[in-house]
Specification:
The complex is a heterotrimer of chains A (359), B (119) and C (194). Chain A has 359 residues and is an alpha+beta fold. Helix content of chain A is 49%, strand content 14%. Chain A contains 13 helices and 8 strands. The radius of gyration of chain A is 20 Å and the shape is globular. Chain A starts with a strand and ends with a helix. Chain B is α/β, with parallel strands linked by helices. Chain B is globular, with a radius of gyration of 15 Å. Chain C is of the alpha+beta class. Chain C contains 6 helices and 9 strands, in the order αβαββαββαβαββαβ. The chains are: A alpha+beta (359), B alpha/beta (119), C alpha+beta (194). Chains A and B meet through β6, β7, β8 and α11 of A and β2 and α2 of B.
Chain lengths: 359, 119, 194
Amino acid sequence: MGKRTIIPFGPQHPVLPEPIHLDLVLEDEVVVDVIPSIGYIHRGLEKLVEKKEYTEMVYVIERICGICSFGHGWGASASIEGAMGIEVPERAEYLRTIWHELSRIHSHLLWLGLLADGFGFESLFMHCWRIREHVLDLFEKTTGGRVIFSVCKVGGVRKDIDAATLKEISDTLNALKPEIKKLTDVFLEDASVKNRTVGVGVLTKEDAIELGAVGPVARGSGVYQDIRLTGNGAYHELGFEPMIEEAGDCYARTKVRIRELFQSIELITKAVELIPEGPIDVPVKGNVDGEFVLRLEQPRGEAYYYAKGAGTKFLERMRVRTPTNQNIPSLVKMLKGCDLADVPILVLTIDPCISCTER
Amino acid sequence: MEKKYLIQEFEQVTPEQLLPRVKEMKKGGYRLGQACATKQADGNIFVMYSFDLDHVLHNLKVNVPADLKLQSVTGDYWSAFIYENEMHDLFGITFENLALDYGGRFFKVSEPTPWNPQN
Amino acid sequence: MATFKIGKVVLGSLFKKPATRMYPVVAREWQDRTRGHVEIDVTSCITCGICQRKCPANAITVSRDTRTWEIQRMQCVQCGACVDNCPKKCLTMKPEYTAPGGEKVIDTFNIPEAPKPAAPAAPAADGDAAAPAAGGGLKCDTDSCVFCGLCARNCPCSAITVNRDEKQWTVDKSACVQCGLCVEKCPKKCLVIE
């Protein structure tokens, strides 16, 4: 047994776009214990509900994160709608689903790029982000923003997409498919990439359930869990089935995300075919009185929204619990027993978003 | 597909009932979804623990007593340490027998317990 | 096991146009919907201040006294809440982004005195600020009113209450900003701003 050393990892580290700090207790090269600490960018956005009306609060909640911003906007609006008992028109649900799946594609491509960057594969990183740019262009065309969309509002959506643009979305994505395939093949088949991911950081199915892992981390460990199965949005009409991998290592988590990428394209193509005509919003009047819990499957996993009103135009509580928050205990578990050199990759495979975590 | 997200289960428990109830949930195979504190209009705080089984949420609500002390659930659900430390730092609720206690240094806040109604 | 799988992609991109643009030599193409910056048509603004109240980022300041509309460009998050809520539709979202800069830009617009056909030349400079609280303001001719409540539902400030059963129509003059939305919506044309 070697001497114990404590190595600080972060808050500033080349693989981390955002600050998280890990104290790694090492025995020789092997990590034996980890103490995570966050809290460098706590902004207290949840507290703003006391000063901003609930209709405007949606735009604040959306700005919690720059990647899953659509999901946050949807989650905030839908939880308030639930508390007020509002039913959203079907076309709005379809539009929300299309945008949400588009953001999954852009988030997963971003993540694949970051992973490639994490193990020093710069050209792969650049190419992933080159393709992501096409998705961002679709976003700008339909919502007016590249990463912050502001299209969800309480009662529906603010902007409609016409038939021609919907067609363009599915055509562009289907045309991108072969290009994405070329890159994802590198992740799945290239020997140098597999050396870094196969068998690294195994999280067993039991541990994943015990520690409450969510999203691709849970699905990579063989847990049948996807919030899209709970029937929100238009998923129940699109014939959705979650992507499950059994191995529980970094490779499995990468594979889950890659399969979800193609699945999202299928879902969007199908939604574009099935989208009904009709209104995109319903008028909202009155104050929120009641509470509602809503969960959404964001690109990173299950996000949780709790809206509670007290009969005034301000909400009493808007709780947002993001997927990274829930995955940190799993990360701690994965890190125990791995090599120091694998720590950056492992931190990346939970797709950490610290701004989300601290809000 | 059934619209499971519309099922809203809230259960009010007393601080004494909390731990036994959490143990039952653990036995039933539930996964801890989240925990959060909410300040009510009358100045009281309640803590809500959400558990998930087969994509249905079950929420336990506990009113925090005046001395702001609760029993920690980290004995059964270790992953709750994140939420309990967060509530400690933001609301000033003390959790007894916390498995991983950061002692108020989890969030870097400029003033202690900023979301406590007394502040 | 495959090695250097990316070779084809990398070599292929040698013979392709760059995916990036020569910024700033090549200008960016804006989409119609791009949310770049907020513009105001000063002639139709009535300084009601709804945009200021609805702004999630507190970027807008409206002063009734000095008749100015101020926006902190770097504070604005381009959500478009002000554009949606403006009762006079004098705010628009334009696609061009604000120019990057080292200083926080505050744009101030002077709102010209609106010619009011109902009360010609009556509100002097000081009278205007006090107008909502003082005499004038929104009135309802309760004889022709049918108490449908459309005005109350459309009021952005929730200043109007209509009681259908007791045939009562009341306006909270401190909350009313005289935007005129209710006047437009009234089916019986019994509302008037004096």
